[in-house]
Amino acid sequence: MLKFFIPFMALILVACSQEAAPPAQQETTVEPSTAAVAKAATDAFSAQPEDIQARYIYRHPKETLAFFEIKPGMTVAEALPGGGWYSKILLNHLGASGKLIGVDYALDMFPRFGFFSAEYLEAKKTWTATWTADANSWRNDSSAQVSAFVFGSMPKSTQGAADAFLFIRALHNLNRFEKDAGYLTTALKDAYEILKPGGIVGVVQHMSPEDKSDDWADGSKGYLKKSLVIKKFEEAGFKYVDSTDINNNPKDQPGADDTVWRLPPSLSTSRDNPELKEQLVEIGESNRMTLKFRKP
User: Fold this and answer.
1) Phi, psi (5° rounding) for residue 272?
2) Which residues of the chain have pLDDT under 70?
3) Which of 47, 60, 188, 254 is the S-S candidate for 258 at Cβ 3.0 to 4.6 Å?
4) Which pLDDT score is estimated for 26?
5) Residue pair 205/288 in contact by the 8 Å Cβ criterion
6) Quick one: angle between helices 34-46 and 85-94, nearest 10?
7) What's the CA gap between 9 and 6, in Å, rounded?
8) Which of 171, 166, 150 is nearest to 104 (CA)?
9) What pLDDT does 41 receive?
């Protein structure tokens, strides 16, 4: 927002005056009412298109952000923002005095997936600029400011700048390739360094049953164990605060050969099988842990 400037002559009059200005002439700073802030936060969710709101029954963004203590005016980093499903909500929720920082995987991680085209990999080289441009197109005058970086290349200017860091369905691939180049370790280090003391980390992650093998739940199928996630964050210096079941889905019971992408919205295994698709749609989106950590 543009700052309001007091006219030059008014400054002179105030400086020369020996007396306080009459109460009727004094400037008053009016803070937004609690009701106004609540309305703005509600609008951030109700203003989204119908196809986005249709996923609220699985993703519960309003309740999730409340659990993570995300409030207007904050600076929030979001891992793997992609096409902006959560980003578009956050831009409005944080408001004009807030900031949203998109953070993508390291450039050298993408070839390890084995299925991205040469054109896609080339385009990733300019991701910070292109994502920022896309995010700016989602904004209006009441939206947060945007910037971006990739894990392992955090600008020094952002160190200690963020109130919260969100890992929403973004940890599994970092863990999947951790043994290759320490991608999860680097991501958690960046998250720790960008946060202010007392800053929050919010995690929403496809959750593996604890009785699955560690190899099955290494992230390659999309799932991680809650115990592993807590262990990794505590090793990185964070304090585990709490969890909530708002994004749990007990209908999601993956078998030995199942991946999370069999479920909505991907439905990768049932595109040519209407009967199977109907069964998977009935299950809904994945069973997800929702965890909160804090930087001491």
Assistant:
1) -110, 20
2) 1-42
3) 254
4) 39
5) yes
6) 160
7) 9
8) 150
9) 57
Q: Please give the Cα distance from 292 to 296 (Å, whole number).
A: 13
Whether 229 and 205 have beta carbons less than 8 Å apart is answered as yes
Measured CA to CA, the distance from residue 64 to residue 82 in angstroms comes to: 19
Distance of CA 31 to the CA centre of its chain: 27
**CA–CA dist 199, 23 (Å, integer):** 40
* C-alpha span between 253 and 261 (Å, rounded): 13
- Say if residues 263 and 246 touch (Cβ distance below 8 Å): no
pLDDT of residue 43: 84
Q: What percent of the chain has pLDDT over 90?
A: 85
The strand ranges marked E within 213-278 are 224-225, 239-244
Assess whether the previous peptide bond of 265 is cis (omega < 30° from 0): yes
Residue 39's pLDDT is 57
Q: Looking at residue 37, what is its pLDDT?
A: 53
In this prediction, residue 10 carries a pLDDT of: 38
Token duo for residue 261: 């992408």
Strand partners, 241: none
pLDDT of residue 6: 37
The predicted pLDDT at position 7 comes to 38
- Cis peptide preceding 49, ω within 30 of 0: no
Give the tokens for residue 263.
């479920």
**Tokens, residue 271:** 């595109």
> Any idea which residue has 């009412």 for tokens?
33
Domains and CATH numbers, the chain: 34-294 (3.40.50.150)
